[in-house]
Amino acid sequence: VSEPAADRWPRGRAVLTARTARWLGWAALAIILAALPLYLTPYWEQAGLFAMAAIIGAAGLTVLTGTTGQLSLAHAFFLAIGAYGYAYLAAHHTTIGVSVQTGLGWPPVLAAIGAVAIAGAAGAAFSTISSRLRGIYLGIASLGLVFIGQQVLFNATTLTGGYNGRDVPPFAIAGFQFADSHPALTILGVPYGQLERLWYLGLALVVLACWYARNLVKGRPGRALEAVRDGEISAAVMGVNVRRYKAAAFTISSMYAGLAGVLFALTVGQVVPNSFDFTLSISYVVMIVIGGPGSIGGAVLGAIFVSVLPQVLDQYSGSLPLISPTGSGGFDAALASDMLYGLAVIAVLVFAPAGLAGLGERTRNRFARHVITTPQASAPASPERKTIP
Amino acid sequence: MTRPHRRASWAAPALALAIAVTGCSTKAASNTAHSGGIKTGPGVTSTTITLGVLTDESGVFASLGTPLTQAQQLYWQLQDAKGGVCGRQVKLDIGDHGYVVQKAVTLYTDMSPGILALDQLLGSPESAALLPAIEQNGMYTEIAGWPGDLLDNKYTQITGASYDIEAINAIDWLVKTGKLTRGDSVGELYFQGDYGQNALAGARYAAGKDGLKVVAQEITPADTDMTSQVAEFKRSGVKAIIGSEAPPQTASLAGVAMATGLHVPIVVDGPGFDPHLLGTAAASALKANVYVVTSLAPPSLGVPTVSQVTSTWTARYPKSPPAAVSVITGWAQAEIMNKVLQQACTDKNLTRQGVLTAFHQLSSINTGGLVAAPLSYTTLGQPPERAVYIASVDPALPGGTKSLGVVESANAKTYQEGQ
Asked: Is the peptide bond before A293 cis (omega within 30 degrees of 0)?
């Protein structure tokens, strides 16, 4: 590489270098992520897609719980609305054996948008309640939605397929199906099937979702939401319409959950009530807490941690010592991975009190002080733990 | 300081790009091959055949899935010691989905390129989720369940009479033994989904033929207290109850019925009973009123094949409880898989297509009493057989049930699926 850069930008060379370095880092990451479907086995592609869905859902929840301070345990409910909403809107009316499945047969893109809109509408409807409650009371009230949702999913069988759920039509954009064929596609000798195609859809949605959430949190609305979190009265005094902002945060968060639900449903290919129970809501709270509440980067890291770690453990805990093989009825891999996962969550909370985002920032600052000498980078951004009331 | 850093950062995307473009992906499509004059496909080498098992060892059906899987492992260990099948050792790739659909999908995606067929697929939501992929892969699949809905699916196999046939035989047996007479009401407690709804269809059919009235109560596996259902049965004056649910609901059904003075016979489908229940407070109620109807032999049945399975089981797992019906089920399924593989070997075609073709050639398979009648898989849409064992609950016996005999009623013989 020649050295014209120094002549082009005579002043602030170091700063530009740091920024360029960051951009190049992103570029490298983008290339790696885009190339991964060429290498990953279907197992890891699926794990990656689950992680992408989790990232979108966690980004939404961190805006609501981390930035606005509204504890919500209803995330599973809104994910279910997105997932079932897409399946219902995109599917055609069919009769399988004795069971009837209703559907509107919309084009998949419209169905996905519709599903997110329905989730948002449900969030907006619930926000009339949520904006009147706070803290643990809101948490419990929102938990009620999950239980109501489960009853509906089990019993509204023509809509939801009941206990066995319903299948999810593949996604398609202008005739290009995100399935194993229609059209058949081979890139660099690798057949591009459903998972490979969904991978790029997932990446695009993640980028879009994170970009929007980041702008929201860093911008003026984000400051208003933080003001609401830090004190509703003081926020009102400063001219923030508290109830309106709380309702907006709930609605946006529900739409994120709906979008996550759509991607999740497309990845699994079948939606069942058990996928959207109370434990899913807890998983999302775990994601944003260990990521660092209120931080979009933290939500990304937390989502990856929570959704990928169990898969890694499932895959490799069989090769740990003292683990008996699946099927022998002893202390097997599934049990070991559950326990290791629990320990890992506790370890993160103990050793990274500001969450994974704080940990990342700390490491970067330490690294940055040694390598780059820019005023921005050397000033340590103090990661403080944001409180969830 | 800055110069080397900048160079390094330029290198990052360049390197990433270089690796991405020049690196060779190892993702290759599996092809059919020939080995020793035999056509082979995924999961088959010159020395091994790999079969998949998707079971529940950590979820709600763990008490059924674990022994079922262990029985299959034991069967293939013994078979391998005898030289395997087609000159190849049979290996099982076991996945524990814990009754979670997305986990089952992930596990199947992971194992499917490396297996010839599925020796076990447990769970009806999991089956529903995997069927499209199974059909696409042409994967012969043995279902650990008896849903009649799957009889017209050419990729799936069930070991014995479907739930509707079980219910018909149960009701006809109740009529024959004088426990029900024309004009009576019979209760049907059933799970939503292919299991319970299939049994309900059978119960309705038999009730129509026998002049009975069906009082149906739908539940989900999440419901474990049967108080309101029993109250409804009592109000309707049912003279017997057919139960198509899981063991916890059976315990509640029998216990609550006895406590509220509803002393009527309760006949449950095979998946509704588990010998573990005999260690609970419901044991006396189960002993007094409950019968089990299934095509799979009660382990206490005194025929040589069944005794051999139970004694082999006890020798291998001396610390486990004695063999339950789930052990017989796993064994019988592995036995049928063995027959299918032998047929495919004779046809010199150990591909997935070859296995399916072999499967549909099998007729009159005699399991030595493991299944109530010989099994035939030549006609799509028909149950492989229509006979069942009726057993009473007897805590003193291994497996907890005592056979009262084989039933194959006239209604069960003439019933057509989907009627």
From this structure: no
**Helix, strand, or coil (residue B104):** helix
Q: What ipTM describes this predicted complex? A: 0.72
Q: What is the pLDDT of residue B340?
A: 95
- B187 φψ region: left (φ > 0), alpha (ψ -120 to 50), beta (else): beta
Which residues of chain B make contact with A47, given a CB cutoff of 8 A?
Answer: 106
Per-residue pLDDT tens over the stretch A282-307: 989 988 888 888 888 889 998 998 88
Return d(Cα A319, Cα B264) in angstroms, integer. Answer: 52
| DSSP tag of A193 | -
**Cβ of B18 under 8 Å from any chain A Cβ?**
no
Encoded amino acid at A6, one letter: A
**To which H or E segment does residue A206 belong?**
helix A194-218
Residues in chain A closer than 8 A to B133 (CB atoms)? 269
Q: How far apart are the first and last CA of chain A?
A: 53
Q: Is B366 on the interface with A (CB under 8 A)?
A: no
Q: Label residue B144 left, alpha or beta by phi (over 0 means left) and psi (-120 to 50 means alpha).
A: beta
Q: How many whole angstroms separate alpha carbon B388 and alpha carbon B371?
A: 8
Quick check: A363 pLDDT over 90? no
Q: Select from B210, B199, B274, B282 the least CA-distant residue to B244.
A: B199
E-strand stretches of A69-174: 94-96, 99-101, 166-167, 172-173
User: Is the Cβ pair A31, B7 closer than 8 Å?
Assistant: no
Question: What is the per-residue pLDDT across B343-381, written as a single tens digit (0 to 9) for each?
Answer: 999 999 999 999 999 999 999 899 989 999 999 999 988
Which pLDDT tens digit goes with each residue over B389-404? Answer: 999 999 988 889 999 9
Whole-Å CA distances, B281 to B159, B254, B257: 32, 11, 13
Across B72-85, average pLDDT: 94
Predicted confidence at residue A370, as pLDDT, reads: 57
Query: What pLDDT, on the 0 to 100 scale, is given for residue A39?
Result: 84
The closest alpha carbon to A90, from A103, A79, A78, belongs to A103
Check if the beta carbon of residue B350 is closer than 8 Å to that of residue B48: no
Nearest to B360 by CA among B146, B166, B153, B148: B153
Q: What is the pLDDT of residue B4?
A: 46
Q: Do B222 and A154 touch (CB under 8 A)?
A: yes
pLDDT, average across residues B20-47: 69
- The answer to whether B212 touches B180, Cβ cutoff 8 Å, is yes
pTM of whole model > 0.90? no
- Name the residue type at position B16: A
- Of the candidates A218, A112, A135, A109, the residue with the CA atom closest to the CA atom of residue A120: A112
The nearest CA of chain A is from the CA of B2 a distance in Å of: 7
Q: Closest Cα to residue B66, out of A314, A331, A318, A326? A: A326
pLDDT on residue B180? 93
Predicted confidence at residue B50, as pLDDT, reads 95
Distance CA A281, CA A275 (A): 11
